[in-house]
């Protein structure tokens, strides 16, 4: 495991969190949970029928699953506090108490309600569910963090050994997963959240954020450039302590000689380790190209902007991906408590 993840793992072990895995009969999820419990990384909460879960674990030879806490959504008496909580959260939207009692039977919603109620610290799902389903439950129950109205997705990019880019070979790319066409205010929020992700999960002690564009400091005129310039201004308003600059082309952002030439006087140009892309198309393409052509490891996406950590998995993930995402989620939870 990479040095960054060893550090994150040690932090999770030292400050143990309670992590919900709502897809409790999914084999990759159970395999990851068994490993997490064995390594003492987190207290695992599974949602489902305990007898079914233990039988599945025994079939798969996963002895540590018996140590997980299991919450049964069909236990009406135990579910009533969560139903009441969901009713209070959503009654203004027309949700009745009967609707709420039905909703808590959905493991994705129940997991978020456990967090909201203070009985858990984070959730990892998506091995069986779509991103839309995972996010919908999180939006309706947990909502976004103070000052943030949009959720975005960041990738922690672990660059090949010896790479001159990033901080110790680590960069953060955002948004590469959620918002197709963010406006200036949303881009600013992505930048603020990416700074937090870089510090909490990327091990980047000095985040330097580049707001990327096809223009550097007025070299091109277009409304898309204007959006990035405005987003940079708004991000500075949101957090005056951010180290941020834009608009910058990608080479001006990360190559010192190009940055000095195209954006003289900028403290960020040529030294950026956090890249904020102008839209999802650019971000998604960029991270995949860096991953495949440069041989970087893309860790994520980590969901940014929620009031409590909920992370979405690819349905094509493996058990090691889930294990790593649990470690990331623990560290997000620890950071929010700091």
What's the arrangement of secondary structure elements?
Blueprint lengths: L2 H12 L2 E5 L5 H13 L2 E6 L2 H10 L9 E3 L4 H15 L6 H7 L3 H11 L4 E4 L5 H11 L10 E7 L11 E5 L9 H17 L8 E4 L10 H16 L5 E5 L1 H5 L1 H7 L11 E3 L3 H14 L3 E8 L5 E3 L6 H19 L1
Parallel strand pairs: 1-2, 1-4, 2-3, 4-11, 6-9, 7-8, 7-9
Antiparallel strand pairs: 5-6, 5-10
Overview of the structural elements:
The protein has 13 helices and eleven strands. The longest helix has 19 residues. The strands form two sheets. A six-stranded mixed β-sheet has the order 8-7-9-6-5-10, with helices on both faces. The chain folds into two domains: 171 residues, Rossmann fold (3-Layer(aba) Sandwich); 147 residues, 3-Layer(aba) Sandwich (Rossmann fold). The protein is globular, with a radius of gyration of 21 Å. Strand 1, helix 2 and strand 2 form a beta-alpha-beta unit. The chain is of the alpha/beta class. The model has no long low-confidence stretch (mean pLDDT 96).
Task: Provide a brief overview of the structure.
This protein has 338 residues and is an alpha/beta fold.
Strand content: 15-25%
User: What is the name of the CATH topology of the largest domain?
Assistant: Rossmann fold
Please give the radius of gyration in angstroms.
Answer: 21 Å
- How far apart, in Å, are the first and last alpha carbons? 26 Å
CATH class annotation of the largest domain? Alpha Beta
């Amino acid at each position: 495991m990479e040095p960054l993840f060893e550090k994150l793992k040690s932090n999770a072990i030292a400050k143990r969190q309670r992590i919900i895995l709502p897809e409790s009969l999914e084999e990759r999820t159970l395999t990851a949970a068994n490993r997490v419990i064995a390594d003492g990384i987190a207290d695992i909460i599974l949602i489902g029928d305990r007898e079914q879960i233990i039988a599945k674990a025994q079939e798969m030879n996963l002895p540590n699953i018996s140590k997980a806490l299991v919450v049964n959504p069909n236990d009406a008496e135990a579910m009533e506090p969560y139903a009441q909580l969901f009713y209070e959260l959503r009654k203004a939207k027309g949700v009745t108490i009967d609707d709420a009692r039905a909703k808590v039977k959905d493991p994705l919603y129940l997991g978020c309600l456990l967090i909201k109620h203070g009985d858990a610290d984070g959730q990892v799902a998506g091995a069986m569910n779509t991103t839309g389903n995972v996010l919908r439950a999180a939006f309706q129950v947990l909502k976004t963090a103070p000052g943030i109205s949009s959720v975005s997705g960041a990738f922690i990019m672990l660059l090949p050994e010896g790479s001159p880019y990033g901080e110790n070979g680590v960069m953060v790319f955002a948004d590469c997963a959620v918002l197709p066409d963010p406006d200036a205010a949303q881009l600013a929020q992505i930048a603020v959240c990416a700074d937090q992700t870089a510090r909490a999960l990327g091990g980047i002690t000095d985040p330097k954020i580049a707001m990327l564009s096809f223009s550097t400091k007025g070299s091109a005129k277009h409304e898309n450039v204007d959006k990035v310039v405005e987003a940079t201004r708004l991000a500075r308003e949101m957090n005056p302590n951010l180290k941020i600059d834009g608009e910058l082309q990608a080479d001006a952002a990360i190559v010192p000689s190009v940055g000095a030439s195209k954006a003289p006087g900028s403290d960020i140009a040529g030294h950026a380790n956090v890249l904020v892309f102008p839209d999802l198309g650019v971000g998604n393409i960029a991270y995949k190209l860096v991953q495949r052509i440069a041989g970087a490891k893309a860790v994520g996406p980590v969901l940014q902007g929620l009031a409590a950590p909920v992370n979405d998995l690819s349905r094509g993930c493996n058990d090691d991906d889930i294990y790593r995402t649990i470690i990331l989620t623990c560290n997000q939870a620890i950071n929010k408590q700091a």
